[in-house]
Amino acid sequence: MPIEQIPDSDVRYYLVAFDAEGRERTDDPAGLMSERVGNALQDQAITDVFIMSHGWRADVPSARRQYAAWIGAMLACTDDLARMRATRPDFRPLVIGLHWPSEPFGNEELAAGVAFGASSDLDTKWLVDRYAERLADTPAARAALETIIGTAAANPEPASLPDEVEAAYAVLARESGLAEDLTAAASIDCEKGDPFDAQAIYRAAQAEPVSFGDTRAGGIALLPLRLLSYHKMKDRAKQIGETGGASLLANAQRATAQRETRFHLMGHSFGCIVVSAMLAGAGDGQTDVRAVNSVVLVQGAMSIWSLAARIPAVPERAGAFHRIVRDRRVAGPILTTMSRFDTAVADAYSRASLAGAWVPGGLGDQVSFEPGQQNWPRYAAIGALGLRGEGLAIENLDMQAATQPYSFQPGRIYNLLSSHVIREGGPPSGAHSDFLKPEVGHAVWEAA
Fold first, then answer.
1. How many Cβ atoms are within 10 Å of 45's Cβ, its own excluded?
2. Fewest CB atoms within 10 A around its CB: which of 138, 188, 240, 371?
3. Which pLDDT band, with edges at 50, 70 and 90, does 347 fall under?
4. What is the dotted CATH code of the domain comprising 4-103+235-447?
5. Cβ contact 349:381 at 8 Å
């Protein structure tokens, strides 16, 4: 990807793209963007590096659009920029946007252009190819996909999943690496999920449909397939962060080892997993990353217990990214945004985290937005309820107007109640993407 120009400004950013395994893509005519980043950091007097990651549902064109809007919204905070330059007269930023393959459902291939009827053999083959790319491209996985998709093409809404389809789902869950741990919880949410039960998900969806992708084609019989894709993208976000993302951060910090260059990480949705994994690393052996100066997690689709030293439901285990707090890998503040109008994280995330949560009414009052509560749910996203857990220095604040200052302190976590700002959007995701606001940009600048 060439270096991208933000419209109507002189600001550019580096778009660094990774494949599904976290390897930087080598098909850019301009060369490896990570090398271009390293050269810029060595040759220019960069004071602040901003690294941001999009969430799910982003191909390269949509990632470009999102980063242009995201950076553009920050540039519109002219008072904050003036304050930054007054505080740091030599202020010179470098911005990096990460791209990773994060299309879990593929609504585009299930839209009106796909007939998906009993005679749609070509469409069925195409869907098998696409889902094999996302989940597992093995002979067993392909055979399972042919059974699942072919049967759904002939009968989109059977009374129950046929035995052969249920068995095919079990094979696909195993081949994709998600059979034993539905939520990818051992590595992300640190909570063991129930074994994948496609029949239970299907029966629950019949009574209480929840959209994980376009159900106009293929009916709800493909809902378990979309759910597997969702969890695969969640697992991929962590892998991208631990591999390509962590390497990019380490190399950028090595290139600025002789200067006081500050680093700031920002993520949206699953991008919060990417930047958290980038900072936490794959294990305790990571020692070559110095503390970053701020982290902002916008409407994060990751567990509220991610930084906790102990998960209440499984007290012998810590949050997947607890190393960030334990090893003091953030010198400044950590911010989250929370909105009750973001149904992607306030409702769908909790339902998708456990097969049993799909039972109608199974969530009950799982996600509550009552102030002052202490009994936090087992499965909930930070974009709904913020970061939680004992031993964390947490402060809950209202998101301020773009003209009002904060008093963020180093080493503290600030959960910003943002429902009065992040509130617009229709089904199924609600306000999940309604964060390109001056109030959000202001909070990012205040943290930096």
1. 10
2. 371
3. confident
4. 3.40.50
5. yes
CA pair distance 379, 356, nearest whole angstrom: 11
CB 178 within 8 A of CB 235: yes
With bands split at pLDDT 50, 70 and 90, how would you rate the model's confidence at 290? Answer: confident
In angstroms, the CA 256 to CA 47 distance is 9
SS3 string, the chain, reads CCCEECCCCCCEEEEEEECCCCCECCCCCCCCHHHHHHHHHHHCCCCEEEEEECCCCCCHHHHHHHHHHHHHHHHCCHHHHHHHHHHCCCCCEEEEEEECCCCCCCHHHHCCCCCCCCCCHHHHHHHHHHHHHHCCCCHHHHHHHHHHHHHHHHCCCCCCCCHHHHHHHHHHHHHCCCCCCCCCCCCCCCCCCCCCCHHHHHHHHHHCCCCCCCCCCCHHHHHHHHHHHHHHHHHHHHHHHHHHHHHHHHHHHHHCCCCCCEEEEEEECCHHHHHHHHHHCCCCCCCCCCCECEEEEECCCCECCCCCCCECCECCCCCCCCHHHHCCCECCCEEEEECCCCHHHHHHHHHHCCHHHHCCCCCCCCCCCCCCCCCCCCCCEHHHHCCCCCCCCEEEEECCCCCCCCCCCCCCEEEEECCCCCCCCCCCCCCCCCCCCHHHHHHHHHHC
Tens of pLDDT, residue by residue over 383-405, are 999 999 988 999 999 999 999 99
Q: Supply the Cα-derived Rg of the chain in whole angstroms.
A: 22
Residue 280 structure tokens = 């936490």
What tens digit of pLDDT does each residue of 189-222 get? 434 445 678 888 888 777 765 555 444 444 677 8
CA proximity to 277, closest of 100, 79, 422: 100
DSSP β-bridge partners for residue 267: 53, 297
Residue with tokens 């970061």: 387
Residue from 301, 229, 291 nearest 53 by CA: 301
Mean pLDDT of 73-85: 93
Parse the chain into domains and list their residue ranges: 4-103+235-447, 107-231
Place of tokens 């697992």: 235
Before 428, cis peptide (omega within 30)? yes
Bridge-based pairing state of the strands 294-298 and 262-268: parallel
**138 or 5: whose pLDDT is higher?**
138
Q: Which residues face 14 on adjacent strands?
A: 96
Residue 192, classified by CB atoms within 10 Å of its CB into exposed (0-12), middle (13-18) or buried (19+), is middle
d(CA 387, CA 413): 8
